[in-house]
Amino acid sequence: MSVMNTTLLDYAHASFPGHETEVWDAGSDAELTLTSHTVVAHVVGEDAAAGVAATMHQHLTGARVAAVMVRPVEPTVVPDRHEDADGVFDLPHRRVGVAAALGAALGAAVGFVVGSVVSTTTAAFVLAFFGAAVGLALGAVSGGGARHASERAVSQPHAPGRTVAVVAAFLHDEAAASTLARAISDSDDEYDVRIVGADGAWHAPNN
After folding, report:
1. What is the pLDDT of residues 8-40, one digit of tens each?
2. What is the DSSP string of 34-87?
3. Average pLDDT over residues 161-176
4. Distances (CA, A) of 177 to 8, 23, 51, 54
5. Phi and psi dihedrals of 117, rounded to 5?
6. Phi, psi of 12, deg, nearest 5
C-alpha cells in the first residue's frame, strides 16, 4: 500500500491553520515534498530561521533544506476571525489580562452585593474577595488562557504578531535525522524540533 506524500506547505497549514504562508529557500514545489525522515524546526523570526537553515547546511552535504514562513494576524484584544482559535500563536497577553481583570471586577461586585444583602459589611468584603478570585480565573480562561492546554499549543510557539518559520531538512534515515535534530536543539533549546514522515506524522527525535 503506497503512502500519499505530503509537502512542507501541507504540514505548515496543518500546524498553523488559517494563516498566510510564504515558501522560502526552495526552488520549486517539488522540493517541498516530505521524505521519510524530514527534520522540522518551528522557529520564531526570520533571522532565527536563517540561523537554523545555516546549521542544517553546515551538518549536511547535498540534502535539501527549505522553509515556509507563517505570517501572523495582527494581535488584538478582541479575537480576530482569521486567527487559530485552538492555538496560542496569535494569542496576545493583553487579551488574557483584560479578560481576567474584567472577570475579577465583575466577581468582586457580585460578591459584595450578595454579601451586603444577606449578611454584614465584613462578609460582603470577604465574598467580594472570593468573587474576584473566581472571576479572575474564569476571565483568564474565557479570554484564551485555556488555549495553552490545547493539543495545538504543543506545536505552536506563543509569538503574537511575529512570523514563525517552519524550517526543514529532507533526510532518509532515523540516525541522520536524530543527529541533526540534536544539533539544532543544542543551538537553542526553545526550538520545537521534530522528525516528520512522508505522510506528515511526526515524532520527537531520539535522545
Report:
1. 999 998 888 878 898 886 555 557 899 999 999
2. --TEEEEEEEESHHHHHHHHHHHHHH-SS-EEEEEEEPPPPP-SSPPTTS-TT-
3. 91
4. 16, 22, 18, 16
5. -75, -45
6. -65, -40
Least confidently predicted of 4-8, 12-16, 72-76, 139-143: 139-143
In the three-class reduction of DSSP (H, G, I as helix; E, B as strand; rest coil), residue 124 is classed as helix
Q: Sort residue 167 into left (φ over 0), alpha (ψ -120 to 50) or beta.
A: beta
Q: For residues 141 and 16, which has the higher predicted lDDT (pLDDT)?
A: 16
Distance set, CA 51 to CA 85, 86, 117, 191 (Å)? 30, 29, 63, 12
Please tell me the number of Cα atoms within 13 Å of 81 on its side-chain side.
0
**Average pLDDT for 68-87:** 74
The answer to whether 85 touches 79, Cβ cutoff 8 Å, is: yes
Determine the Cα–Cα distance for residues 144 and 156; give it in Å rounded to an integer.
Answer: 15
Instruction: Decide: helix, strand or coil at residue 150.
Output: coil
Query: CB-hemisphere CA count at 13 Å for 110?
Result: 13
C-alpha span between 196 and 34 (Å, rounded): 8
Give, in order, the Cα–Cα distances in Å from 128 to each of 104, 124, 137.
9, 6, 14
Q: In what order do the strands lie in the sheet with 21-24?
A: 21-24, 64-70, 164-171, 37-44, 192-196, 202-203
Give the model confidence (pLDDT) of 78-116 as tens digits: 666 666 666 677 767 766 677 778 778 887 888 888 878
